[in-house]
Amino acid sequence: MLGLRYPAPEAAWAAAVRLAGAGPGHDALGLAARETLDHGAQGQVRRVYRRDLGPEAACACAGDLLGPSELDPSLTRVLEVRPAALDGATRREIEERLFERWLAEWRREARLEWTWGTAPRTRPLSQALQQPLSDTAGS
């Protein structure tokens, strides 16, 4: 996919009109360079999965232009659609996503305990650190 992020929603909407006629046969890197130099876009070509592009990508085909939205001044040009395959790259991506979910869950449940000497000496500090922060912004 070719992702183009514009500095303002108006620029993204103007680009959508400009790029509507450019189909899958267009040079993606040339298009990204032109949009970057002439219209201030930030472009990148990379591999993504449909689920990362949201519901509007569910039936996207090569050449389709996704976006922009009122909240997101970016466009995505679908360069190629590959059938799902459990190859090495996909397997690594799945493993990384599963690990990130697992790690996030453990981080939510983690509790820190400081041990600076004996347990009786550090227990009050550890208990204090586990308490929610009070609102001290107004003091």
Q: Kindly report the spatial arrangement of strands forming the biggest sheet.
A: 2-1-4-3
Radius of gyration: 24 Å
What structural category arises from helix and sheet content? alpha+beta
Provide the β-strand percentage band: 5-15%
Tally the beta strands.
Answer: 4
Distance between the termini: 51 Å
The DSSP helix count reads: 5
The overall average pLDDT, rounded, is: 85
SSE string, helix = H, strand = E? EHHEHEEHH
In a few lines, what is going on in this structure?
The chain is built from 5 helices and 4 strands; from the N terminus they run E-H-H-E-H-E-E-H-H.
Walk me through the structure:
This protein has helices at residues 9-19, 28-39, 50-53, 88-109, 119-130; strands at residues 2-5, 42-45, 65-66, 74-77. The N and C termini lie far apart (51 Å). β3 (65-66) and β4 (74-77) form a beta hairpin. The protein is an alpha+beta fold. It has 5 helices and 4 strands, in the order βααβαββαα. The relative contact order is 0.14.
What keywords describe this structure?
alpha+beta, 44% helix, 10% strand, 139 residues, 5 helices, elongated, four-stranded antiparallel beta sheet
Question: What's the SSE blueprint?
Answer:
Blueprint: E1 2-5, H1 9-19, H2 28-39, E2 42-45, H3 50-53, E3 65-66, E4 74-77, H4 88-109, H5 119-130
Antiparallel strand pairs: 1-2, 1-4, 3-4
